[in-house]
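User: Quick sanity check before I run a bigger batch. Here is a single chain. Can you write out its predicted 3D structure?
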Amino acid sequence: MKRNYSIAGVLLFAVIGSFSAWAEGGRFAPQSVLAEGKWVKIEVKETGIYKLSYKDIQDMGFARPEQVSLHGYGGWPLEENLSGYIDDLPAVPVWRGVDYLLFYGRGVVKWAYDDGEKLFTHTNNPYSTAGHYFLTDALAPREMETADPFGGSASLQIRDYDDYMVHEKELAAASESGRELFGEYVEGSTPLNISFSVPGILNETGKVTLRFISRPTGSSGAVSLGIGQETLIDKGVLYTVSDIDTKAVSFQKTADWTGDKTENVSVRLSYAAKSATNSRLDYVRLQMKRSLKPYGAFTFFRSLASVGNASRFTIREATANTMVLDVTDGGNPKRMPATLSGSELSFTVPAGALREFVIVQTDKSFSVPAKAGDVPNQNLHALGQTDMIVIVPPSAPLKVQAERLAAVHRERDNLTVEVVEPQAIYNEFSGGTPDATAYRLFLKMFYDRSTSEADKPKYLLLFGDGVFDNRALSGELPALYPNGAIYQRMLLSYQSEESIGPGSYVTDDYFGFLNDDNHAPDASNGSYKPIAQWKLDIGVGRLPVRTGAQAAQVVDKLIGYMDNKLPGSWKNNVCFVADDGNNSDGYTIIHANQANQLADYLEDNHPEFLVNKVFFDVFKKDFSSTQNPHPDVRNRIQKLLKSGLLLINYSGHGGSTAWSDEKVLTTTDIAQFNYPCLPLWITATCDFSPFDATETSAGEMIMLNKSGGVALYTTTRLVYRTPNFIINNQLVRHLFDRKDGRRLTFGEVMKNTKNSDELYGDNNKLNFLLIGDPAMKLAYPEYSVQLTAVNGEPLPAEPFTLKALEKVTLEGEVLTPDGSRATDFNGSLKPTVLDSKTTLKTLNNNQTDTFLVYTDYPNTLFAGNDAVTNGTFRFSFIVPKDISYSNDDFGKINFYASDEQSGAEAQGAYLNFKVRGTAGNAEEDTEGPEIRALYLNDTTFTADSRVNTAPLFVAALWDKSGVNISGSSIGHDMMLIIDGNPALSYVLNDYYQTVPDGDGTGYAAFPLPALSAGRHFAEFIAWDVYNNSTRASFAFEAVDGLKPVLFDLKATPNPAREQAVFYFSHNRPEANMTVQITVFDMSGRQLWQHEERGSSDAFKYYTVTWDLTNSSGSRLRPGLYFYRASVTTDRSKEASKANKLIILAQ
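Assistant: Done. Predicted structure follows.
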């Protein structure tokens, strides 16, 4: 069996000893040692012996240096198997001189011996460039002990030792993924020469290990390595790469190092390839024998020959100032009892495992650890059981917003929430050294202490962005984050060891693996589970905010979502978008097929939702366009987002800047989002949201945009189609699950999804993450709507029938979650009656001889707006003449209701009816709809008026029988036609809304796409349910850059005491605009200014709230002030209006 020995690590006996301590008192200390006394942090970069003089210690603020103790772990990365963790800054033994102390400090490179490969190997700390220790006068110092002498005899005499060296520079990343960084770029014409100094090297066979990466294209590359005149690795092959997701291939080989050896070792490296990128050295590692003697102030040594043998080590050139430390247990180094005879120092050890020693010359000069700073007292270990942890970078603007969000969860959800900065976690859980495992250990403390399910931790919110290179060593990162600034502005990310291939990943799941079962060895072979088999124990989410402004905007929208500031029937709408494939997959319909399965599952199991199927191949494709081959898909997505979606789900190709090759959704689109309703996004596509990249991804933009979305279940890396569908399917299934009667949070949904049996061992799931608050819930209605009667009769058991031109009256009630009628529910109802479900098929635009057969409800018979009184409702409508007469499938009635006073919302559906035949007693109607108003932007519009190039068209209609919006018959759609051009002809059925209690009144509001500047002619056509039509036309002039007109600028209340809300209306409803509100004193001095980009719905005011403070945050004095509103829309000139405001004393 292959074994790995840690060099200067924690041995098995130490681990076993610590287990017994945990069993008695718990794994985690009840109080942190940092809670009291003075503490100073020091740092070391390399493993070695360090010296602190008493003067050094006094200069750090300690009056009595002889009473100062040392604590910590040093710079090795924490073990990801948490079973051997020793908690809370263990004391480190020191060797004390007359007026100084020496200690063994671990740097950031960890060495181990691989017994299977017979090699010493190394690992760099991926989180920090320095290790840390703490000094304090609060605890008694731990003096270094002398090991017990071995009384037996030695069977082996050792006068040399096995040593190792490595040349490795971490300069660049092959891709923005993974832990590995790489060194010098090697070109064919310029070999790389590397020098090592190895005094005392012996002429015995050693080993040299080379690891090199490159991405050859066209033909393979060859790497060679020599030492002196000897070629040890000759033309090692790096094979050709054609896969775009493989950023490089690696060549790694260990060769015997024979021949004569000298102190100065010169390694020569060359690489030849016709065409290649990412051609970089990873490392050259040497393994050799050296004479056992001091080489400087300290010399580490070990002997492979001693393993299993009682051995006597003899050190030459020793003096009375020479001592030997056993640092095998890095947390408990001991002085070896040794005998000096002349210039030889000897000691004997019993047979056993590989041990690590260090020769120390106490009379030599040692490095002094640098002071990293004073450490305020802290005590995370003393925190009580906590439901939610929020980790936020040490940025005051970010922390303010994190606290705001935490306060809402405390008040609204009755959660205990702790907001913690990462450095505080590092101090108590990783010895002050940044380490992602410290986050996990902090959460595990609460998990292990819990005595019931109720007091287990539930959520982790990472309130900050992260970078793939946690140390900011590569590329442009050193310039962006100099001098450790990355730790002040970012949170750590957990990266895979794989860094050059498609298997590389970043996952926030790591922080939520808290149960010890994740680390239990397999009973059959002793191996440990791979991370893809670990189970999540909490919900984990991330908000990738970098600035206070970003954080404030995100928290504003999340709180607004939780406050249900925008109730509406949009919460009944969900959307499934599906790609039509591309050349790489043969234009497969699999994406559409998968999306259709998800949509049908939701339709069948949650019929209260209106499912919109936006499959690319349903829409005509413009093959002549390279920029926008799917304009109808783009327009449909934008329209649905504007009207409001609870959920939008995408299946298909994509990347960090767009959905699909056709770019139906891009970062440019997302930056311009201005819709008011916030959907949950599920993006089953490749690397849509690599939050750890240097550039902001499309997925992150959705969260950072004040409109974009409330949360995303999204991807960070390459993902694969089949496992994508599995996780997507599980997400949709768990999204509407309930636990003990309550809906699940976003974090619980992700946890249950990833823990499902279908995803056990699936690496693909690691590339999905939650961008969002894991403690939030999807805001669909809690109450339900039930249909109780049709045409005055109780609902029959058998399906009833709706007939064309029949007047139908439906009655029903709103029910509370317990199923009783909500007698205090008074508000509005939006019923939508859909024609029969229809079997359809896609267009096969790509002519692959495959198409998707699917079902949908393509035609709307009625969309109403009625009242609910004391929990009951009743409404009537006439079934349009245009129905699907030949379809014998069932129709659907969808309901949404809201009570503005209580905030309660309800939804429901009824499916047990059919639509067919014609009523025999239909009333006669021969008149088309009456057009009561027809204008662009606002009611001041008259024929030939000048408007902007993308105005809002509004038509107000009345018809005694009702307006036809069914869309089931060709030629009977509500239409707006510009300049008689078919390409500028728009169907407005979906834009028509009835007015509550309007008795046949309604309106259509349609934002026109941008028109060319100049004169245009518009024709509007509307039909009633009897297929009578009415037409109207008008001319207008579109003017590019025309400034908007502002109306009704006011502030309320006025006078204001606590806050003021600025209101204004304008003639650019639905338009994207930049709004600026500025406040001045009487002398014209600017005191406060607010700018935002947004839009206002048609017929509503635009509002901005102000807390009566100036730009510095100080409240203004009572008095008279001026305020001004300035507005620009896309490419328009600025419009402004001013008014006065009185501020009263508080």
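The two ends are 77 Å apart (CA to CA).

User: Great, the batch can go ahead then.
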